[in-house]
Known about the structure:
This protein is an alpha/beta fold and about 260 residues long. It has one domain (about 10-125, about 170-255): Rossmann fold (3-Layer(aba) Sandwich). It is built from eight helices and seven strands. The chain has a seven-stranded mixed sheet, with helices on both faces. Helix 7 links the parallel strand 6 and strand 7. The longest helix is centred in the middle third of the chain and has 31 residues, at about 145-175. The chain starts with 7 loop residues before the first strand and ends with a helix. The relative contact order is 0.15. The mean pLDDT is about 95.
Amino acid sequence: MLRQPTPFFFEQGPQAVILLHAYSGSSNDVRLLARFLQRHNYTVYAPIFTGHATDDPRDILREGSPEKWWRDTQSAIEVVRAAGYQQIAVFGLSLGGIFATRALEVDRELVGGGVFSSPIITNQHTNVPQQFPRMARHVYRQQDLSEDQIKTRLAWIREQLPIQLGQINQFVTGVQANLNHVKSPFFIAQGGQDEMISAQSGLQLKQALEQTGQVVDYHFYETASHVLTVNTAHQQLETDVLSYLTTIFEVDNDN
């Protein structure tokens, strides 16, 4: 059996960053960015959402829910605070960005943060209903399951997935309705060749935040696909996040 990813906590400098992973992902989604930030003297914590990083993709549907992932996010913030860090930023990739945004709406002690490839504004079409079963099939084939076993598991996934995606959309609607509560500068990164969500998602979020008077640091990577933390844009993303962090923590230090 393959060794599954685990949460990681890279303790380095006095300013901390929490990185939240994607819907079918794990802390591995954000490890490259975390190591980069650690090299630049930031402490980085990456939790794993309930139901993720197991050997069965069905666990995301059986054990996970938006409410549980929101609690996971709150717990992550508490872990970092309990370790003595006062200045904290929180970012999320895709699904993780939904909960990072919610945290920035309700927790005024957070210095800042933002999203990478996150569908915050519209509950428009995504390719998750197609891509998640494909990912699951790939996992099951690696486990040498029979085609009948795989077919049975995938049928269950296709039945349950729309229910959970509906719950996520409900949660997103609440996040969207409270964007005016974000008070810190907000980072947005979006790929122009995003295969999972609309490439306009980041721009729509930027416009919505700016309408409420928020400061937005927006980055569009024209040739990049969805998972910006590991794809062709990852080095530019790292540089952009570092630049943003320098700005927000300087602002926070001045206050």
